[in-house]
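User: Predict the complex.
Assistant: Input components as received:
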Amino acid sequence: MHKDRRDFIQKVTAAALVGSVAPNVLADQSLAPVDIQTWRNSMKNRGEQEEEILILGAGISGLCAAYELAKQGVKYKILEARSRPGGRNETIRHGSVIEEFDRTSICDFSADRNLYFNVGPARISTQHKRVLSYCNEFSIPLEPLINDNRNTYFSFSPSHSLKSREVYASQRGLIASTLAKAIDQNLTSHLIPNNQNQHMLEMLKSFGELDDNFNFTSSTRAGVAQDSGTFTPEQGIEPTHFEELLQYIDKWKNRIHFEQSLHQQSVMLQPKGGMDKIVKGFTSRLPGNIRYNSKVLAIKRSTDGAEVTYENKHGRIKTITAEKVIVTLPLTVLQDIEHDFSNEISQEIQQAQYSSAGKIAFQSKRFWETNEQIFGGISWLDTDNAQIWYPSAKFGSDLGILVGGYIFGGPAGDRFAQLSEYQRISDAISQMSLVHPNTSDHVYAPVSRSWKNTPYSKGGWSSRPPIEAFSHCDGPYVFSGDHTTYLSGWQEGAIASAHRALELLDL
Amino acid sequence: MHKDRRDFIQKVTAAALVGSVAPNVLADQSLAPVDIQTWRNSMKNRGEQEEEILILGAGISGLCAAYELAKQGVKYKILEARSRPGGRNETIRHGSVIEEFDRTSICDFSADRNLYFNVGPARISTQHKRVLSYCNEFSIPLEPLINDNRNTYFSFSPSHSLKSREVYASQRGLIASTLAKAIDQNLTSHLIPNNQNQHMLEMLKSFGELDDNFNFTSSTRAGVAQDSGTFTPEQGIEPTHFEELLQYIDKWKNRIHFEQSLHQQSVMLQPKGGMDKIVKGFTSRLPGNIRYNSKVLAIKRSTDGAEVTYENKHGRIKTITAEKVIVTLPLTVLQDIEHDFSNEISQEIQQAQYSSAGKIAFQSKRFWETNEQIFGGISWLDTDNAQIWYPSAKFGSDLGILVGGYIFGGPAGDRFAQLSEYQRISDAISQMSLVHPNTSDHVYAPVSRSWKNTPYSKGGWSSRPPIEAFSHCDGPYVFSGDHTTYLSGWQEGAIASAHRALELLDL
């Protein structure tokens, strides 16, 4: 910028602020300040020490702990059972090998960096400042991940699907119409403050798209009559009356207000090119101290700390000692490992309950964009496979990866875990066909993963709140991972717990 | 894909479809089928003819008409008063010259293709199939344009701004709480069908985040108490009680349900790199028959059609004759041109009312992303400048273009048109500072446009519904442009009207 332009702005700014009303924006209580550098500076500098920290697990929590230890100049080693880092942060591409307990498959997507499948975490909440801080520190470009799109479908039964926009519009219509009539009939004056009946009625007409008699009969939000709206006035359709859907409330009550929540949002974020850019952000900055294919067998206390026994990639049994051990392994995985953790921790490991989440995806021509104007977002199915995800990026390109099923867990997830690959594919195509009848003409190159059926994960995320014992050291052990926080299933929890682990170690 | 994999899918698909429930998705009435190739094929092939069509105006409508005439092998010429095509579809970048009636400025953005400002249309609705079809035909990559982001601000007065998420959550809370209490007190049983009181109550608790007594007292949707939600259970904040905002209803009633509409959506689309990619899509495929800097002075009937007088770039007065003329010029611009249109058209031109829309933008470090986790979306101000738009792309990059004001029209737009450049900048910084107190530390390189104060536009879009006379030829004249449709202000209207113009010409 030319200096004179800069001067101009500064003069203008000074002028603008003279007499401007004092800002009175409420502090956003929801956003605890999380600045990684500030946190880092708050940690004691440990200086040169011989002590070495052992980290079990190279998922996001373990990698973050390692990265921060490296920043502090503390030595560390990581044992990781898989041949890759990231844990559940896994992005599948052309040639990726997908191993489960009873099967191994190879991803058949075309070799194209835009064709990938985030089979684990796939969205970042804008509230998750720790994750965002690391993306910023690692210069990882982020792009929108569309969570809420009214062009998608919402199913109430296998034979009853509506466009999402019709569902949302008609729910608002029913609520607004019922309340407006009650107000109009003077039934609620004791419930409306300051006799604001007229304001409420005016608001409700707009909120629910009501007519002058407070009926919800025609809705342009739900859709417009064919050929109207361009050369003739826009004419709303007669939408589904939501009261007819009330009987199915158990089927939709947990889905329909989804995008209102703080962690789910109508638009979220994703790293361009795959969620594992975050994994690479850490590993590319770590000096190669991760021992892959190293399966922990036993963890026990020793005189100076702890001794961990593991099987290395050659099948040999090894032991490693460390003064402190950061245990990031999922509780379900710890069930199979001999240990001498405290009673509280041991008991929690025994009682662990993990979601049986899974996903299946296909490569396909983007028929959802060209034929149905669906650009990103989710269709909600009333079947085991629960959700279809449409890609949020590279709109208009020829091919895309369609997540044909995102099974959260529960009995559906347990079933998914046990299905043959053939049956997973068959079921997914069948269920997608309920809203996209010609699915089978388009999709190919299927790839699936059940996290419950995946070694070294044995589940999606912990369904139980974290126990208090995770917030203390247990002798030489400190526990980390999203399951030790209330952000179970979120990378933000994994990172927060890694920071806490380092605080607890009091280096 | 290997043949055996393809065979596998086909077998699986066949198996999947046996016994699958017949699809019963409602036809989406809102989406009239608009396939450009189908439309094109429906047009009579005119073959070789001497006749030449004259198009007045190289905005989207004129360019689309020219492109389709060229496809039909019909000769055409375009007269365009500006030195560039596109009309209101204008993307401003480093070095762009912005001319208004009383000023000329040069855009001082850094020379970077990611730093651009769509000063005219800036979003494409997924409902606008004609625009999408051309983007597809021209291989224009599209990306999300975020319209609704709960991390932005919503202002009720200069001293009263809230986070959008608090506004939306508390409105739902008030509506749900009032209705739920009325239902619980048995006041509305005549209004609730089939005695579904319990289902309604269950729905409303979730819809409005109510407690067991149907009160809206604590909301995690509005935000969470600082430091809660990670190592302690998430604790909602006590949100603003929306009933206190009812008194300001005139200030928010037209904004708060904005993203529910069919043309506005929580996520829309934009061409990567600027809206003028659509203009370039047309012009790069037109064989150079656009006469720029050609200002129409008079349009009159002649024996064989019409004669158009214009001033060329050298200031010389020229005439051009044509059997048919497609008139795409804004009605406000036609007010200054001598013509012999029908009485109905002439009268409409006299009565034309156009919005005085305008925008102002600044280059800036992306403080809204790094400091406030605002990734795209709009803040709504209760001041003349009405909206702040945050960039929807290139998240995490250093610089972005912040639309510091989008003035829709009305008295605010009239004021904006008359302000000096200095005052526009000063006002924008002052108004942005109401929600971003440190705005002046960051923003520079301002650029603004008032469409009302812009030659050859003289307004943003027509505020009146199109008259019936636009749907017929008027002797040698046929009228086109978004103002001749109910999609005024949308490129979709410009394209639809171009198609209609060609149908009316009956070539």
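Chain A is about 30% helix and 20% strand.
Let me know if you want any component modeled separately.
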